[in-house]
Amino acid sequence: MRYLRYGFLGILGIVLVSISLGNSQIVELKLMPDALSELLGFNLSTSLPLFIVVLGGVVAGLVIGFLWEWLREHKHRKDATVKKGEVRKLEREVKKLKNKQNEGKDDVLALLDETN
């Protein structure tokens, strides 16, 4: 299984390098369309290789997707935390009740009751 993962990562690396070499021409990346920039009076632009723009878009999409999913699952993580707290509280209560039940009994019998 480890070799399959290394093979997949190697093939992915080769594909990304070939895409990068095939799309190395410089493109201009603008913040706004020309008409809107003329209306507002400013526009930010930069020149980057095309593969950086494409791969940067993919990375930005992944980051946004992961963040969105993390925020969506917040209520589930909160519920799990609350349930863990309830379980700990109930376990302490059961242990307390067992200790109260075993008061005055022989120590060996109390230990046997605790294991059950």
UniProtKB/TrEMBL annotation:
One GO cellular component term: plasma membrane
Record-annotated Lipopolysaccharide assembly protein A domain positions: 42-94
A Pfam family reported for this protein in Swiss-Prot or TrEMBL: LapA_dom
Residues spanning the membrane: 48-68
Keywords: Cell membrane, Coiled coil, Isomerase, Membrane, Transmembrane, Transmembrane helix
Residue stretches in coiled coil: 80-107
Keyword Membrane belongs to the record: yes
GO molecular function ontology, one term from the record: isomerase activity
Domain of life from the UniProt record: Bacteria
Entry keyword annotation includes Ion transport: no
InterPro entries tied to this protein: LapA_dom
Protein name: Phosphoribosylanthranilate isomerase
